[in-house]
Amino acid sequence: MRWRTSAEFLIGPQLGNNLLMLGIQAEAAEALRRFRIHDIDHIHALEEAPGLGNGGLGRLAARFLESLATLEIPATGYGIRYEFGILDQVIRDGWQVEITDRWLKGGWPWDLVQPFKSCRVGFGGRTEVWRDDHGRYRVRWVPAEQAIGSPHDVPVLGYRVNTCDRLRLWRAEAADAFDVHAFNSGDFYGAVEQKVSSETLSKVLYPNDGTDAGRRLRLMQQHFFVSCTLQDMLRNLRKRGIGVQEFATHWAVQLNDTHPAIAVAELMRLLVDEHHLEWDQAWEITCRSIAYTNHTLLPEALEAWDLGLFATLLPRHLALIHEINARFLQQVRMRAPGDEDLLARVSIVAEQGGKAIRMAHLATIAAHHVNGLVALHSELVRKELLADFARLHPERFTNVTNGVTPRRWLALANPALNGLLRETIGEDWPAREQEWRRLESFRSDPVFLDRREACKQDAKRRLAAIIASRWEQVVDPTSLFDVQVKRIHEYKRQHLNALRLVVQYLRLKHGDTTGMVPRTVLFGGKAAPGYSMAKLIIRFINGIAEVVNNDPDAEGLLNVVFLSDYNVKLGEKVYPAADLSEQISTAGLEASGTGNMKLTMNGALTIGTLDGANVEIREQVGDDNFFLFGKTSEDIRHLRGHYRSWDWLERLPALQEALALMEAGHFSNGDRELFRPLLDQLRCQDAFFVLADFDDYLRAQSMVDEVWLDRRRWTTMSLLNTARSGYFSSDRSIRHYAASIWKVSPLSLSMTNGGSRA
Ligand SMILES: *Cc1c(COP(=O)(O)O)cnc(C)c1O
What we know:
Elements lengths: L1 E4 L9 H8 L2 H9 L6 H7 L9 H15 L4 E6 L7 E5 L2 E5 L12 E2 L5 E5 L2 E6 L5 E6 L2 E13 L6 E11 L5 H5 L3 H12 L15 H25 L7 H4 L1 E5 L6 H12 L4 H11 E4 L10 E3 H7 L1 H21 L4 H7 L2 E2 L5 E3 H8 L3 E3 L2 H11 L1 H6 L4 E3 L6 H7 L2 H11 L20 H26 L8 E6 L8 H16 L9 E6 L7 H18 L8 E6 L4 H7 L5 E4 L11 H7 L3 E4 L5 H8 L5 E2 L4 H7 L5 H6 L2 H11 L12 H10 L4 H20 L1 H13 L6 H13 L16
Parallel strand pairs: 1-2, 1-11, 2-10, 11-12, 12-16, 16-17, 18-19, 18-21, 19-20, 21-22, 22-23
Antiparallel strand pairs: 3-4, 5-9, 6-9, 7-8, 9-10, 13-15, 14-15
Helix pairs in contact: 1-17, 4-31, 7-9, 9-10, 9-12, 11-12, 18-19, 19-30, 20-21, 20-27
Bound molecules: pyridoxal-5'-phosphate (PLP).
């Protein structure tokens, strides 16, 4: 069995997906008709999607579990059942306003509570030394506080197989709901105080905004779900009569980023303190079971916990980490005697700027494998981010290019294309990504291409209908749907896209429309609540939308829509309808991206930089079927340090004019100060190299226009994108993990009544 721990699981709505996995969509629709409900979509529209993740990382965890089930590998995903997930977004006067995500308000029918499998988790307190019956010294942790984690299990079905895996989400409860002593002595608030503070543990998904607020709670959350999870694993072995020494042969542990990295210390504590194993044996078990997936390339985004905070909350873990570190540094000293700098660089304890525990180092030191998300990212992890570790243990560093599930993102989200694929390459296409290449043989078949185009039109009309009803905007489904949906972040460069729109708008105003094709430009995404520049970018996009959409000169050529509250459910409508996929991050900064894969599968053509998964998407689909632009990560590295954006601006007259228009308040109802921080950032610093890539981006966009005019060519390219995107099925990633990292094979369950995908 494997388990994957992740602080986030962004699972999306369940009903439609489960019907698809079971193969009973038609039966369900038929059953509803007996209740005079003729459109099952009405039911789907009512379902709340749990927002238990921020973006890509949470989606990755969810889809890997789905692929594990589809490949018939027994597995459990472990995480937290946040009462409030990622904040909902509404747009008021062009600004993002956050409101609480109350996804549980109407109840949620998809999880089963398992109160008898609760676990106790401690915090704070002190450690005691004692002597066991054999006269050996032992350490015992005496926590000051305890919380209880109660498991809520969500079934995760495999596609047309009998395997059902499990997502086990921990909900925090007070260990003693009610302090009778305090109550009897008249302290009525005190009587429930502990209950309140324990339950906040699973109250909210910590917003991914890099502020200090709530860091203590965040560390508590991490320890809470990791401790529950490991206890659950050990209990499972005990139940099956298997000794703890066998842990690593029965469980493979995959850490989804460093949020669960405390598992290294907690597993050591359980094995050494509670199961009384010797250090070396416990360490061997820990290292043989744990592997780590890195998610970021920004050194400043690597998790590090203040040592003082750590000592207060987890005193025993801190002592264990010091011991792990001392032993590790001793090995490093043997390898590189006298290299004090190296020791300081690889130590788990950072000494500069206040002592801190570096979670990525802890994870890397224990893990038998460390992987990035795509080839470029894994290479940068090896060569830059964790280079010292890679020199010490090169064999541990590897890459597993991640993927997305074709069930949710194609079969479910794109019913028209699903129909065409079933007919052409077989019922089972969603689980057989190797077969998709067969679509290539239709590349010059005009009848097939017409049908392919009709599927895209269908998805676009459906999205247009939603835009009309929810955002009260009319968009033309025959125009080019140009899509950038993802978290709003400067490195993702929604502002590059927005500035290009201002330049286009100015061209329209100047009457220079040669070569321009009608476009509907769609944006969607949330900004972290504390990230003011990202919020200003949202305001900027909405400012542009308001001006452009009300200007007769732009009518029929340019339409801009900001799709508020972008989430999995809305994504299911947007990805299938996209013609053009904007993947325009600063090269070297997007670890992978997965939106890019979903869009490629659905036949959108990518305009993108050589960043993250774009590199491999381009390799797969062919460079003729991809609009490439921009500086490479290598170029960016050379530019850093002596980049002067104002020099670049000198050479960009069209952009100068666009900035001047912004500055004049044209997109802010005359307010000349509103966009000042954004303008200053671009002119004086431009940390994300928007100006360095601007011209090339415009050039690539005019290539897009040119190809769009030749619709047959576009549709062929789109077909080839789908046909060649099989590599990005998460099944392929999971097979890779299973064979080379976890060393596990499927366990097929056959049932007499059939139903198994033969
Ligand atoms: C796929 C997905 C993402 C990730 O998008 P990127 O373009 O890879 O950043 C974020 N949010 C939701 C809701 C998604 O479905």
